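Recap from last week: sequence in, structure out.
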Amino acid sequence: MTPVSCCFIDRATFKSFVESNGKFAYEILTTISKIELRQFHNCVNHIQTQVTGRVAGMLLDFSRNLYGSNHFQLTLTRHDLADLLGTSRETVSRILTDFVTEKLIEVKGKDITILNDERLEKINLAG
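Predicted structure tokens:
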């Protein structure tokens, strides 16, 4: 896990700031809308995509949006991944092993390297 610092702002102070600063309020609405739209797409993807495609999509999402690199350390357990993907730990482990066998990814402990992101993208899109 990564250490995180958090700052809390009193609700009344925040409300007052939003009411008096239109540009800030607009930026907050834009950000919330983007987050909600992404969540909607994730839900649709989860419903319409087979598990293999969801695992491929998760690896690509982590690589592109969370870590910004094709090489990253996965801090989640296989059980956590399974919970996120709505499947079993065994299924996630099997799919990751298949991806290693197909030389799409390399796994060394918690370190994952995406070797063929184009093929993972095709799997993600095909479901």
